[in-house]
């Protein structure tokens, strides 16, 4: 696991505000895969598409966060390499907001 100021990123979540940790997860231009994850079904895009992290429309950052009764959620804006149909069969989408728990960095 990636080290952050001498502690693991998982431990950093416990001691740092989520916005600081989230900025370090993915940056604008990072190439990512929207992966299937059996721990967090259903995954939003079943084809595990590739895309790039881009600045959120109307915002200065590539992510937004919000709090619900189930916890803090970090959403990234992803521009797909090819248009995608989501798990509900809607689309095709050229971009979408995706929860960070479904994202995996891949080589450029």
Description:
The protein is mainly beta and 108 residues long. It has one domain (27-105): SH3 type barrels. Helix content is 14%, strand content 40%. The chain has two helices and eight strands. Strands 3, 4, 5, 6, 7 and 8 form a six-stranded antiparallel β-sheet that branches. Strands 1-2 form a two-stranded antiparallel ribbon. A hairpin with an 8-residue loop joins β6 (71-84) and β7. The protein is globular. Residues 1-20 have low confidence and may be disordered.
CATH architecture: Roll
Number-wise, the strands total 8
Q: What ranges have pLDDT less than 50 throughout 5 or more consecutive residues?
A: 1-20
Helix content: 10-25%
Percentage of β-strand residues: 35-45%
Shape: globular
Count up the helices.
2
Our measurement of the CA-to-CA distance between the termini, rounded to an integer number of angstroms, reads 20 Å
The CATH topology annotation reads as: SH3 type barrels
Write down the CATH class: Mainly Beta
Order of helices and strands: EEHHEEEEEE
Number of structural units classed as domains: 1
What does the secondary structure layout of this molecule look like, with pairings?
Elements: E1 3-4, E2 7-8, H1 9-15, H2 18-25, E3 31-34, E4 50-54, E5 63-68, E6 71-84, E7 93-99, E8 103-105
Antiparallel strand pairs: 1-2, 3-4, 3-8, 4-6, 5-6, 6-7
Key structural traits:
40% strand, 2 helices, 14% helix, two-stranded antiparallel ribbon, mainly beta, 108 residues, globular, SH3 type barrels
Can you summarize this structure?
By secondary structure, the protein is mainly β. 14% of the residues lie in helices and 40% in strands.
């Amino acid at each position: 696991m990636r080290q952050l100021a001498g502690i693991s990123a998982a431990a950093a979540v416990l001691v740092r505000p989520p916005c600081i940790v989230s900025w370090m997860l993915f940056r604008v231009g990072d190439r990512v895969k929207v992966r299937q994850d059996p721990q967090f079904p259903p995954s939003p895009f079943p084809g595990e598409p590739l895309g790039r992290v881009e600045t959120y429309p109307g915002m200065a950052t590539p992510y937004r966060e919000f709090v619900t009764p189930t916890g803090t959620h970090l959403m990234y804006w992803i521009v797909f390499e090819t248009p995608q149909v989501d798990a509900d069969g809607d689309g095709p989408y050229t971009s979408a907001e995706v929860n960070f728990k479904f994202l995996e960095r891949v080589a450029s």
